[in-house]
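tool_call: predict_structure(chain=1)
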Amino acid sequence: MMFADERRMKRENGRSAANHKHPRPRKPERGSPARPVITVFGSAQARRGGRLYAESQRMGELLGQAGFDLMTGGYDGVMEAISRGGAEAGAHVTGVTLDRFGSVVNAHVVDEIRTTNFYERFTWLIDRADGYVAMHGGIGTLAEVVFAWQELVVGTPGARPLILVGERWRRLLRVFRDNLIAPAKIYGALTVVATPEAAIKLLAAHFAGAGIELSARERRPRTGSRSAEAG
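tool_result:
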């Protein structure tokens, strides 16, 4: 059952707090019953004014309005659009970044968690979330989806929704079915929908079925991004 298997926060990595330019924020455990955390995956290449950016911003807005907090990779493209839409709708937005990229976290992230390798970053994005949504993306997005998918198949995080938004995902799954050596039952962990509106309906139904009453939050003024090293 969700929230019953809360993972203990990772131990601090031993670095002095004096070495940080910003205060260390609370590290996001899995969401409270009133505000589950949804991790959203998607391409950094989506451009403002484009269809994918607009669709992603809408996804973030719907998630925030429905009573979810958000976690993304923290950078540009879909990650920025999700963060923007969610923040404007009152969601608490966490960005899990990777030191080797050397990029700046987008302006809509409230808490930044800085990681040093892909596995550490994936672990944050998957283990600390109550559900997952994937927008269109490239190999990075695919890697994140497959990581979450594998974890769900082996039952590591417990039952959580993994929703893929867009018909490209349906075409990709056909290729997987035709070419991977895998039992058909693994595809039951994935749900493909055409629109953000369809995704939010499935998420709301999932959490209602788990006895979680979502609580919407009014938009809060931003106080600036804060960062912390993952540990």
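agent: Strands lie at 37-41, 69-72, 93-98, 111-115, 131-134, 162-165, 191-193, 226-229. Proceeding to next step.
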